Structure formats: structure tokens, C-alpha cells
Amino acid sequence: MAKVVTLGEIMLRLSPQGNDRFIQTEAFRIIPGGGEANVAISLANYGHQSCYVSKLPDHEIGQIAVNALRRYGVDTAFIARGGNRVGLYYAETGASMRPSKVIYDRAHSAIAEAEPGDFDFDKIMEGAAWFHWSGITPAISDKAAELTRLACEAAKRHGVTVSVDLNFRKKLWTSEKAISVMKPLMKYVDVCIGNEEDAALCLGFKPDADVEGGKTDAAGYEGIFKQMAQEFGFKYVVSTLRESFSATRNGWKALIYNGKEFYQSKRYEIDPIIDRVGGGDSFSGGLIHGMLKYEGDQAKALEFAVAASALKHTINGDFNLVSEAEVLSLAGGNANGRVQR
Hints:
Distance between the termini: 29 Å
Number of strands: 15
Number of helices: 11
Structural class: alpha/beta
Largest sheet: 9 strands, mixed
Helix content: 25-40%
Strand content: 15-25%
Shape: globular
Radius of gyration: 19 Å
Order of helices and strands: EEEHEEHEEEHEHHEHEHHEEEEHHH
């Protein structure tokens, strides 16, 4: 299997039990997670040498996050230690017509204040086949944005395929700031992953699709995918297409474009959703694995990614704790949920 590198912030998620609201809970569960860490976990589960790059304080709370990654086989050798705090976020799980809610408490975290000298990106990228990052990382701070650029440059020096999940977070930065930082980074990117909202807010593109109304006609995406590929030189443009009927019932499929052809995946009805946090990250992890395993067969890669992310919606926590065999079973049509004896 391949060496895959991801860069980002792993945080500690504090969640009430079940569907309790913040204001009624008397205890929080500690659940480590964060965009690129979630991708790293998926790739380790699929058998890759999954290397996660970040910075965490050299104390017991930082060690909670490191141990969470090690538990599932992620290589933590490139995590710098230092700084004062681990980022936190609070997540309240919604139900029916009540949406889930996230509150961040991540300012001045160790990775937000990390310096270029904390990392040897040439050593990190040596022998790697793939590097993945998301728009969350440069949104954390200007220093983190600089780290992202340096990592992308090193990846290109070593001939590494680079993917990005645009992942716009309005609680972290404005669209104007995102566009000013993200657009210059796109020249390093081979595979761009992002839904219609991310593309508009991060890159200034907008497809002709009424997603709020639940209409995810893939034809509305073809124009923007072609524009994005043409302007930025992406080899692949990919988007999940989520139909949000309620907090616990979604339709889920995806679309991919390789510069010549479009391919739309099969659609999954996810009902009930147990936890949708990390759903997009599990898609990215599945796509990277599919691209590496099926050597650019975009149809097979996309079907694996969509099945993997559909399964993630049934699992508590940020991490997609499924095996390749389980994903292939669902992608192959086994979705009845019967007990496996």
C-alpha cells in the first residue's frame, strides 16, 4: 500500500450524550477528531502507511489526540510537540428537524501557532504517493496557511499527487479571505473535492443547482466542474451531493469529472443518521484509496468513496471505523443490514 500524508489540526470534540442539548447536559464525551486526521484514520484502516502531520502540546491532553491516532495505526512520527493548547469543539447532535450544532474553541492552538521550523516537509514527503489537506487548515491562522503552502511545494518537488477538500468554514474566516488564500494554493492541486457552496465561497464559482430545495441534478454541476478544471488545471473535480431532508435522513451520492467524462455514483438513502460529523472526510479518504487502488478508474474510486462515507453516517464519532471489505460489500449492493454471522 502507499504512503499518504495529511496535514491539519486534530481537536478534542466534546459532545453531550445522545441527542441531549448543550444546556441540559451534565457530562461531555471526549471524541478526538478533525478533518485531515479523519482522512488519515480511514486510510490507515484501508492498509496504507498513513502519516499525519500536526503540532500538539507536550502534555497529557495533547497525548490523548496522539494516542487516538496511534490506536488505529496512523504514523504520528511527524507530529511536532509544543505549544500551549489543544483545539476544542463542542458538537450537539440534532434530530429530525433540529439541526446539529458546532461551537469552536480552537483559537491559539498549537498548530495555529506552529512555525515552519517545526516540520521538515521534504523528509515528510519523501516516498509519499499522495498528500491531502483541506480548507480548514489555512483557515486556522496565517501561520497554518503558510505551512499548507510549504507542504504543497514540497509535495510537488517530490512528485506527490495533491488533493484538497475545500471545506469552507464560515466560523473560521470570510469568503473574501478564503478566496485570497485558497486560489493561489490551487496551482498545486491535482484533485479538488468540494460541494457547490464550498466552490462558491472558496473559489468564486457557483453551479446552477437548487440544493437547498433538495434538487441535486448533476447536470447543474457539469458547467462549474469544467470551469474549475480549466481555470486551475485540476485533473479531477469531485463533489458529494447531499439531499438534506432532516438532521437524521439524507440522500447521498457524488459526481466526478476527469477533464473528459462525468460519472455519477449510485445514491444512498441514509436513515437514520447516527453522526454526520466526518462524513465528508470519510468520502475524501475513500476517494484517495480508490484512486490509488484502481489507478485512476474514476467510477470505481467514486463508488468506493460514496459507500465508505454512507457507512460513516452510521458511526458515532469523527472517525470512519470500517474496513475495505465492509465498504466493498456495500458498494457491491449488500445494504440490507442483516447480522453477519
